[in-house]
User: Fold this.
Amino acid sequence: MEFLLTTLVMTVTPGTGVLYTVSAGLSRGPRASVVAAIGCTLGIVPHVLAAITGLAALLHTSALAFQTLKYLGVAYLLLMAWKTLRDRSALTAEQDAAPRSSARVIVDAVLLNLLNPKLTLFFFAFLPQFVPDDHPHAVLRMLELSGCFMLLTFVVFAAYGRFAAAMRDHVIARPAVVTWLRRVFAGAFAALGAKLALS
Assistant:
């Protein structure tokens, strides 16, 4: 129960994944929001594997490895901010606009999580707290806990996205709101990038 409550707090707290899923729901509807939630969830897998296999220890001890991954993440967040600001097809009232492919949405979502070194370090510090040192199947236990984390992540992100999609018709009918939202999302991606750079 303690693990589930901690995980719920972690997933409900808005971050890059929530922002991306909400953006997908508002701009492209309910299906895109669920696809984005799937992509963000899949983006957790490399971090889980890194933590379990000990690669997180390398990131923790090698400043160069950590800084390289961190600044790749910063660059990608800034790219997402620029793309969001420039993307005039998103958040449009034209129902016949060509949608982005599910693969593209998933790739962007996976990259957002993949290029966040703090997520690897989070799992490195988080998982062992819930696995006793003398547990006979520690790796299986960590995989089980990681699976629970991913499932809850998907459910929470999909809920955020579906809510955003439900508000879509109210939003896209107002051009001023659309412009404001585009700027807010772009600014949020840029702010997250700056926060990562300065951390």
Remarks:
- Residues 138-166 form the longest helix (29 residues).
- The chain has a mean pLDDT of 80.
- Residues 171 and 177 are 6 Å apart (CA to CA).
